[in-house]
Give the backbone structure.
Amino acid sequence: MFEYEETMEKAQEEETPRQKVLTPREIVCELDKYIIGQDQAKRSVAIALRNRWRRQQVAAELRDEIAPKNIIMMGPTGVGKTEIARRLARLANSPFLKVEATKFTEVGYVGRDVESMVRDLSELAVNMAKKEEQEIVESRAAELAEERLLDILLPKKTEETQEEEEGEKERILEVVKSDRDGMPSTREKLRRMLRSGKMDKRYVDLEVSSSNIPMVEIFSSAGMEEMEFNVKEIFGNMFPQKKKKRRVKIPEAMEILFQEESQRLIDMDKVVEKAIRITEQNGIIFLDELDKVAGSGSSHGPDVSREGVQRDLLPIVEGSTVATKYGMIKTDHILFIAAGAFNVSKPSDLLPELQGRFPIRVELDSLTTEDFVRILLEPKNALITQYEALMATEGIELIFEDESVEAIAEMASKVNDRMENIGARRLHTIMEKLVDEISFDAPNLDEKSVTIDKSYVTEKLEDILEDENLSRYIL
């Protein structure tokens, strides 16, 4: 027990945000492992992330006055805007939410309320905080689960009745004592068998809680979502949990008991308090398709997806307090990263007040053929690496020659120029078409090494590329 308490204290002492140890240059280096090019965008987000840590080091009276350096990324689809924001959140170990501005409507119309993005972010933060607490109590929960399972496998003896005569009672107690002297050795023997996996095929009867809450569907309009907050809790009290017996294998029983003990050991008040703190101080909201709500230019009545949404977004980005089921959350220091193609509208078409809340503007470059070659080969999660790993599960070695990689990149670039430019996403379409036959026949192939050269790429894709109508549907 003392060891468990020491572990908890140590974990609390060591709790420091990851971004504290990463400099902007190190952040860019980490992003380079997954994203090709876009150096200016990487620099901007690295500075914005580092500024969060810097703000925490400032004197308390000035700390709250420093506003987050929100960012607008401008560039065509598929050039890495979303990936930069997502990888940044992972580096910072921050709750991250991606939403499309077009899913929101002006208050008064049926649709999602802009405040729902903060509620969703708080939900993610609670799950993150809960997972961290589970890791802290993991060893203690495993011990308690093992003890409970041993109690099921070796039930304790019942107390003897107190109605016997004194002499008889003493004799019975001696027998019980001698029996119990032997119990630890039996229990330890079971424990060793349990840990070694010798009992994995045995079944045990386990009492598990089953929720008896009926399915309820609520239709709520914008601004009414707070009505849904405590519905589950209300019905949980009206319909208490029932216990039912299940016959399960020992490994499954161990997992069920482990989860139950973890829930008991976790202090949910502490989890919620921590979640609110990381939401307010470390939360990142990626607001995509902002250009779709920029500018009105509409002369045929109100457009609920444009200026109205901007007006509703403004207080959230400026800093306001949003009611969630976990408590009130201030949005003053949540980092907002907006993105859009801005090929029709411009950032200057946004409301002036909203523009002022996004001080950093970054334009991302369109991807070239050379960029496509690097995307196929260099990142940790490179497309070619993924396909090689997938085919390796079938025992097939997939080999891409350098010339074939260049041919794939050139084709992706040509299709993007000829049709809609969807950036690196075009590579996914072309690669899937290229290895379609190999993927289908892989389990039955006798040849365990397949080489993809330039002629193979040309044979598979040239006809489709030449037929413009066909390429529109396939590539």
In short: Residues 1-20, 158-182, 215-227, 298-302 have pLDDT under 50 and may be disordered. The two ends are 61 Å apart (CA to CA).
